[in-house]
Amino acid sequence: MTRPGPRQNQQNQHGQQQSQQSQHSRWSQESKQGQHGRQGQHSQPPPPSRPRPLPLPAHAPVDRRALLHAALGTAAVAVLGGALTADASRTRPGPSGVLRVATGEPTAFYEAFGRLLTAEVEKAYPRLSCRVRTTAGSLTNIGLLRDRRADLGLVLTDTALAAQGTDLFPRPVPLRAIGRVYETYLQFVVRADSPVREVADLAGHPVSLGATGSGAAVLGARILHAAGLTPGTDVPVLHLPLADAAEAMRAGSVDALIVAGGVPLPALSGLDERPGLRFLPLAGLLPRLDGREGRAGSGLEEVSLPQGAYRSAGGVATIGVSNLLVCRPDLPHAVAEALTRLLVLRASALVPDNAVGTQFLDVGSLIGTGGIALHPGAAEAYRALHG
């Protein structure tokens, strides 16, 4: 897979200390409002190596953490695990407060990743209490950050860029990145017996573009436009959560659906068994999707669906979409730094079980946040860990 090269964002740290002090009292007060139960233990982290999609075997499932540990070696795992333990047990206390994390649909990738992340946060930093909020996805999460109803959110990179001032967000929403956490695949599917072979053939066919408030819904509309189709005019459009869209396709009330996620997605695997799926090629539309930041800045790139992920999807050229963990600029410096250390040093514990076709976390990919600047606390952590 070809990825945009990592790019360290320059940060303006003027007023950083003052911002930390102004936020301290709110976070300390919130931390007293109740601690939530700590979640389960996870395996040790992988090394700081270049991320890549794991190969998918044709039959047997992949144990991602076992593969990572085999590549790293037991001794190196112990070293990185000890590094985080030492960091969390310094004489100075770790960050404290309530951390509200906006994720995605229940049972989908964002939600699964968010729960793994918050479990690691609470294990490493007991004075931080996390609250996971399930949402429709990227658009909703940016709105929650804007309205100060969330502290962290998972978003598609192109949606985060749109929040800097477009028709979607006429008033720019200031965001900072903790890191580019993974890359997912756009999967635009029709039934195997459909006459539709490419996106331009969807004229007159009902399509689900994802739940209202999701980044996939926005990107799906852009893809239709890129193919010369007007959503709602040339193509009847529904906005259904993935589970509902899958049932509608099985029943024949929608002819196509689009989703951004790892591969294989359980909902699509079920459809692939019955009634059978065809995956539409999307990479040819990339030149019409590049934003003002260019392809690397937009978080979009050409990828091929892995062999064995679904029955007939292997090699289909689609679009990879990078995903960011973002926050408001006033997230306390110590919290941003702590989160970043977890992303680097606990990476293998942050891979949802059903998400084989994603990139793993390392510094090379984490700092590649496109047009969204790193939070100063995140930038400091990356410098401390890897210079």
3D architecture notes:
This protein is of the alpha/beta class and 387 residues long. 35% of the residues lie in helices and 16% in strands. The protein contains 13 helices and 10 strands. The chain has helices spanning 16-31, 64-72, 74-88, 109-124, 138-146, 157-162, 215-226, 242-251, 266-273, 294-298, 333-345, 363-366, 376-386, and strands at 97-102, 128-133, 152-156, 176-191, 207-208, 237-238, 256-261, 277-279, 300-304, 317-327. Strands 1, 2, 3, 4, 5, 6, 7, 8, 9 and 10 form a 10-stranded mixed sheet that branches. Strand 5, helix 7 and strand 6 (237-238) form a beta-alpha-beta unit. Helix 11 (333-345) crosses helix 13. Residues 1-91 have low confidence and may be disordered.
Brief description of this entry?
35% of the residues lie in helices and 16% in strands. It is built from 13 helices and ten strands. Strands 1, 2, 3, 4, 5, 6, 7, 8, 9 and 10 form a ten-stranded mixed beta sheet that branches.
Backbone shape: globular
**Low-confidence sequence ranges:** 1-91
The helix/strand order is HHHEHEHEHEEHEHEHEHEEHHH
Biggest sheet architecture: 10 strands, mixed
> Would you tell me the overall average pLDDT?
78
- Give the termini separation: 26 Å
The strand count comes to: 10
Q: How many whole angstroms does the radius of gyration measure?
A: 21 Å
Task: Determine the fraction of residues in helical runs and give it as a percent range.
Answer: 25-40%
**DSSP strand content:** 15-25%
The secondary-structure class comes to: alpha/beta
Summed up, the helix count is 13
